[in-house]
Design a protein that fits this description.
- Helices cover 35% and strands 14% of the residues.
- It is α/β, with parallel strands linked by helices and 284 residues long.
- It has a domain of 185 residues: Aldolase class I (TIM Barrel).
- An eight-stranded parallel barrel has the order 3-4-5-6-7-8-9-10, surrounded by five helices.
- It binds phosphoenolpyruvate (PEP) and manganese (II) ion.
Amino acid sequence: MSANDETPAKKSPYPLASRGSKEGRPSEIAVGGFSFGGPRIVVIAGPCAVESPEQIMTIAKIVKGMGATMLRGGAFKPRSSPYSFQGLEGAGLGYLKAAGTENGMPVVSEIMDARHVPIFLEHDVDVLQVGARNMQNFTLLKELGKLKKPILFKRGAGSTVEEWLCAAEYILYGGNPNVILCERGINTFETATRATLDISAVPVLKHATHLPVIVDPSHAAGRPDIIPALAKAAVAVGADGLIMEVHHRPNDAMCDGKQAVLPEDFSILMDALRNVAPAVGRSV
Ligand code: PEP
Ligand code: MN
């Protein structure tokens, strides 16, 4: 693109993501029998990491039975320490897909490296997650722009909404229109939570972009006791979906057990969401 006055970038830094580019109409992104941005709230649940075939199958059955629509599970984990569990990689994607197929749930898993695209395609991962740490990994974003697979695109913990939308623009500009934004908390001075859930980002994005917006209360809170409250707030404020970490044995979890919601609490939350969603014209 040349840098003259007529370039779209001059009008908006994110011309393809901007709300105006679709005449104010919100986008719907279909995955399996479900849709991000439609009347029904998409609830993605599962463990932080796939740990074994039995673990992911057990959790898939539990959350499916409670009304979750999609299954999450990391196989390539972005850990702060190189000594922490890094994920089961390709084998983990296989266990995740098997659990999803068995339970009629599309699967979501994080991709950290452009060189892993073939492994994700081989295992037919339904939604590729870009984590907070890779929001501005432009090499990865350019590769994902060549695909048609939906991209669950998390906000960087230190990024503004504008930086986030500019980064999403890389995927759209590459030719992949299927981007779902995910607010997962930002770094602030507050220490009571792992990050600060920027709840206002949801309505801000609804004005700024046509892309669907979901919320991850798990990584924002970092503690299970307040996750249900944040999840309800997210739906009330207009989020199109939720992604949450649920584990049946959080004390044994190999990653993020501290913030895992127990199945019984997830079930109570799902019941509550069945009341909250209709108040804002949605269903769960
Ligand atoms: C995750 O979803 O497990 C994860 C690492 O999330 P985030 O990129 O938001 O930290
Ligand atoms: Mn996690």
